[in-house]
Request: fold
Amino acid sequence: MRPGDAFRITNGKGLIFDATIIDANSKHLQAELMEGIKGYDHWPFRLSIGIAPTKNSDRLEWFLEKATEIGVDEIFLFESFHSERRKTKPERLEKVIIAAMKQSVKSRLPKLYDVQKLSTLFQLPFEGDRFVAWIDEGVTQTLAKAAAPGRNTFVLIGPEGDFSRDEIEESKLSGFIPVSLGAARLRTETAGVAAVHTIQIINQLQ
Reply:
């Protein structure tokens, strides 16, 4: 691009700006910004996802990309009893999220929290509905029916080996409601995307 060319830029905090290049070279770019325009990706609720990093880092990156494209506010990575990966590369994951935000023309950058203990998430203050996706014959209520539009929603997605029963009991004591994501047995990253999409669709259909 050259001086005089127009482009768009976002601050990642809800605004998109029309801009015109004034000067550009290999080391810097100077541009004139017009008045900020509110992005389309604003919704009257907060969607938070807690997810256990997958053994294959590419799958985690795929989840972050798709969740950002669909629409999520914050993502908490955690380690639990059956976790396959307990460390990640936050800077790389942040780049994946930024790229997905730009590709989907969003104005808000989801907040990513690096790996922490699952028990820490149980203690986080959260005003809204809290769910834990669990594969169990006794769990018949689906997220699609349990969640309500316009409500802040926090959903926990376990590792490939799922949550342990002790973790589920602790989650329930902390206010999380066990839910199903459907009859199919989903991989961790697929379950995460399904949860994000379910909440967004519920809110768009109201």
